[in-house]
Write a structure and sequence with these properties.
It is built from 10 helices and 14 strands. The strands form 3 sheets. The chain has a 6-stranded parallel beta sheet, sandwiched between helices. A 5-stranded parallel beta sheet has the order 7-6-8-9-11, sandwiched between helices. Strand 6 (165-171), helix 6 and strand 7 form a beta-alpha-beta unit. With 327 residues, it is α/β, with parallel strands linked by helices. It is elongated and about 65 Å long.
Amino acid sequence: MKKALRLLSLLVLLLIPMLSACGNSEQTGDTKTGDSGDSSGKKYKVGILAPAVTHGWVAAVAYHAEARAKELSSEIEYQIQTSSNAAEMTSQLDDLMTWGAEAIVAFPQWEGMEVPIQRALDEGIKIINFDIVIDAEGVYRVAGDNKDMGIQGANYVVEKIGKEGNVVILEVPTSGSVSELRKNGFVETIEEIAPDIKLHTYATQFTREDGLKDFADILTSLDKIDAVYSLDDETSIGVLQAIKEAGRTDIKVVTGGGGMQEYFNMMPENEDIWIQSALYSPAMVKDAVDVALKVLKGEDVEMETIIPTTIVDRDNYKEFLDEGSPY
């Protein structure tokens, strides 16, 4: 019996270091997990509100926003919703708030979003406004420099046609601040650097169909046009088709805006017309998603992020070709 007790005591003494070693291993693992900064694996909830597809640029915005959200999937959960009007977007904003969105990237194309956006802000949700201005206090904003697009367009037109001539401006009043800023930048600069240029302003839409239809009518009313200040690449494609169908040879410049691959590829094809685009890439929305994450992390972020204008024409278009682009 004594011999058995001595054997049992010996086994206990041997097991004590082994049990202590196991206990120390678990404690070290827990400490390392705590040091990682996110033992819960919690992700930030980010909502994205975009318009339903009206033309290629808008479609590309939703595409790039979702692409960036997927790239950040280790840090965020996201929902993306598209809508056709302010009422529908307001309803989707409510859905995102119910879901628990902590930040929302909003890209409205209509008036009427100020009140629901302000309500979300008052609830503590971070709002990152992409492109068109939302007049609500506390909104972060990411956009291209719309006014500078107009300034650059004016300088480009004067460089190509000189300080006299007839220039058609194709504005898009339904696009709100986008059209207003681009037009104002153009008009103010022309008045400053080439006051003898005659400006003729007409309304259209951001589609090639409207560009074709509206510019075909304009061509019948104006016998001499030296340049066209168009705000959008899709509109400009319609303009170029109208010029071709009318057999007009007087027009020397057609501007655009956006960064459409199809439009870029047209630039070297017509040596008689300088085809230009003020790059306003839909991929800028990725910056808006990045801003949302930085704000949620508590990083210092400027309230407004304005992305500079880049001019593309036949001299440099190859630098901006991208076979993978959806636009």
